[in-house]
Write a structure and sequence with these properties.
Strand order of the largest sheet: 3-2-5-6
Catalytic activity: Hydrolyzes single-stranded DNA or mismatched double-stranded DNA and polynucleotides, releasing free uracil
Enzyme class: hydrolase
Helix content: 25-40%
Protein name: Uracil-DNA glycosylase
Distance between the termini: 21 Å
Number of strands: 6
Structural class: alpha/beta
Order of helices and strands: HHHEHEHHEEHEHEH
Strand content: 5-15%
EC number: 3.2.2.27
Function: Excises uracil residues from the DNA which can arise as a result of misincorporation of dUMP residues by DNA polymerase or due to deamination of cytosine.
Shape: globular
Length: 232
Amino acid sequence: MSEAVRLEESWKAALSQEFASPYMTALKEFLQAEKQAGKQIFPRGAEYFRALDLTPLDAVKVVILGQDPYHGEGQAHGLSFSVRPGVRIPPSLVNIYKEMESDLGIPPARHGFLEHWARQGVLLLNSVLTVERASAASHQGKGWERFTDAVIRAVNSLPHPVVFILWGSYAQKKAGFVDRERHLVLRSAHPSPLSAHNGFFGTRPFSKANDFLVAHGQTPIDWRLPEAPASA
C-alpha cells in the first residue's frame, strides 16, 4: 500500500494475486487521496497488516474476527479488539475478559494489548483494516472486505484444523464459507454491551478452542496476558 507497509512473507505469497488485482490498486489510491486531503487514518501504515505480521499463515491456530479498527486517537494498532498499552480497555474487550475469567479463571488484564495472543497463533483479523479518525465504518466498501475474504479463504485451506471464533452476525456471515467438517466454528452473540447478555456470556470459547487444539495435537493458547506488556 506504501513503502511503510509491511507484510509477513507467507501471507505475501498467499495473497499475491490480491495485491495484483485492480481493486487493491483502487484501495491504495483511495488511502493515498485521503491522506493527501489531510485526513488521519488509523492504524498507521506500518500496522495495516499487523495481524498478519504477528501470525504467519502456517502458524494460525485460532481466528477471532472483528469488523472495523477503533477510530479513536491512539487505539487501533492492527489487531481486532486490541488497543495499545495505556489506552482505556474498550467495553467489548471488558466483556471478553469477563467471559475468559468465567471460562478459565483468568482475572481480567489491566490493559487491552493482545499481541501475546497473536504471537501464539491467534489471528486477530478485522474485516476492514483502516478507518478515518472519529468516523466509524468510514472505509467500509472500499475493498478491504474482499482482501480479508481472501485471508479467511487461505486459512480455510490450511492442512491443519483451525478454530474460528465468530462473535455476532457480521462475523458469522463473513466466514460462512468455512469448512465446518475440518475446522471448529464457534458462533455466539457479540461481546458488545448491547448484546453480550443475549448469548455471549457463558459460551466458553477459550476453553473450547483449547480443547479442540489439544485434541488435534496442537499446543493450546495461553490466554493469560502479561501484566506489563511491551509497548506497541
